[in-house]
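agent> call fold_tool(seq_1)
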Amino acid sequence: MTTGTDPLAPLAELPGVPEAVAEVRKAVDRLYGHRAMRRRAAEVTSESALRGARASAALDGADWPLEEVRRRTDFGADPEARTVGGALRISAEAGQLLSVWRHSPMQVLARLHLLAVGDGAADAGRPRKADEPAPELFPLELATAEGVGSELPPAVAVTLPPAPPAEEAAARLDQLAQLLAARADRAPGVGAPALVVAAVVHGELLALRPFASHNGVIARAAQRIVLIAEGLDPKAICPAEVGLAELGTAAYQQALQGYLSGTAEGMAAWIAHCGQALRLGVRESTAVCEAMQRGMV
């Protein structure tokens, strides 16, 4: 593989990563070829957004049934409702931020945070300050959760290292934004594949926790935007958040620990985990397509 000037390209050559990339590509292509996508693609996109938002909120501790999320109109009554509401707002607007993302990822991340917390919050849309501690990523009650139907063995919850100080986080975030903006002008097919780029953006935002709240839902939304921008999932019908929730919080933490280690083995494991979650998201949308074809939706 020709790496060109993309610093992420070597990650695509780590053991197991080419296979993960190929499996994801095959699964996504199969979903895009489904007969239901010919006439009802917009409906599949909407359903994917809803299910992805529900799953992302669940990973932040607001595990509501899908039909409850679909039915509710008031999302300001309590902390769980606000978490679900923020995830829904982000999911609804993520696709509209694509053109801005390509040249100003920082502006999009600020917008995602504002959507997550709501307009009335004092810290909406701004990174955490030096005197603001980074929040925990996972609710304590979910720390030992196991994924339902997971293809992985039961994971053991791990203790993640603390996020870097606000100034260091801001500097690293700026580097990430520059890297992403540079990719917007690259030749097609050059550099790291979409899965690798999305996994790195996802992992780096979780590592940095640049905001004083809602970093998890923002990181997962950013991953979805990358998958759209990089052309792997241009119609946003592959809700990786669903797969992450299905695999379980403990497996999520364990894979993230690999990313945070910075080792080749750890990075490869994180990318593989993101790939597996994406394939499970594809499976979810395939089931939606099948239901549509049978006239059940």
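agent> call fold_tool(seq_2)
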Amino acid sequence: MATKKDEKGPSMIETFQEFKETKNIDRTTLVSVLEESFRNVISKLFGSDENFDVIVNPDKGDFEIHRNRMVVADGEVQDENKQISLTDAQKIEPDYEVGEEVSEEVNFSKFGRRAILNLRQTLASKILELEHDSLYNKYKDKVGNIVSGEVYQMWKREVLLIDDEGNELHLPKSEQIPSDSYHKGETVRAIVLRVDNENNNPRIILSRTSPQFLERLLEAEVPEINDGLITIRRVARMPGERAKVAVESYDERIDPVGACVGVKGSRVHGIVRELCNENIDVINYSSNTQLFIQRALSPAVVSSITLDTENRKAEVYLQPDQVSLAIGRSGMNIKLASMLTEFTIDVFRVVSDTEADEDIYLDEFSDEIDQWIIDAIKAMGLDTAKAVLNAPREMLIEKADLEEETVDYVLGVLRAEFE
């Protein structure tokens, strides 16, 4: 005797085998989707599914469909889907009478190949949609948090990672630390930057360059941050090179900088390695803008600061031997300080009164320096030769938008005047 599964045909069992172990979808939802898919096909075949009972068991890859019809006298059947003649009913069970309800199991495979194909397509579409929804919701809740993935494929523009459930995670080139190197099969950590969901097709974008990545790493290494005793107020990064972190403690007994750095840097060592030897400066946050800018420019010692809060600009004056420290290698220190404080910082060398008296207006050098170059420098607020000589070379190149050779020529002309 054929079993129930045999009667339904191998193609139907294969359909269930494909979907019963579907990832990311709980059993209740899966049963609901399977039942809905059957009902959609039944409605197309019979015009209505309201008199059908659908029982699904995805764990066994099995299902039952029962059609309920009312017994009517012979010749009075008006709707063959919902009514059955007394004679036909008694073929099923001889003791049926008019007015009773007949429940009869329906063999779905007898509906034909097209109905089965329709069911498979409906199931595939609905379950794919559910998987996408589940994946989107899972990672949407993880935006800003660290996740791990195994390197699966490396391309020029991105690295493809796979999480422990086989989901694809994308790490674009722009979100990789420049000195990062990847090898297939290795585990990589990053934060979830965002989840794109165009046409209900989730694409999880990761980042290792985001300031939030450094924040999360610090939270994992410093218990006081995790416990809420220390707060990370600002983070500025030049990925793989250097970072500045401003921290604040609500407990006077706790030194926030010392707690974050640890004994002999023990707490930041692991983070520095994770970030490809990115140097991490931790400073005390202050709501006093002048003090905060002063701390952000460390290790340089600031002489005085003039603030333009409306335009968020700061003019910082330092002794000659402190200027290079404030600027840092390749202008890195001053850039990070600007990012951290959210102020444009211009650095100037402190000039003595004697030096100021001997100053010369830039316009007097028009016979040696092109006027457009003088105008570009004056647009920065530098009107005299000493002001230009006291300004950092990197600042002149960047803010006056001049070539390095042009700036060096101007500095040479101005310097010669005082020699």
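agent> summarizing second result for user.
The domain at 4-136 is CATH 3.30.1480 (N Utilization Substance Protein A; Chain:P; domain 4). Residues 1-11 have pLDDT under 50 and may be disordered.
agent> awaiting next instruction.
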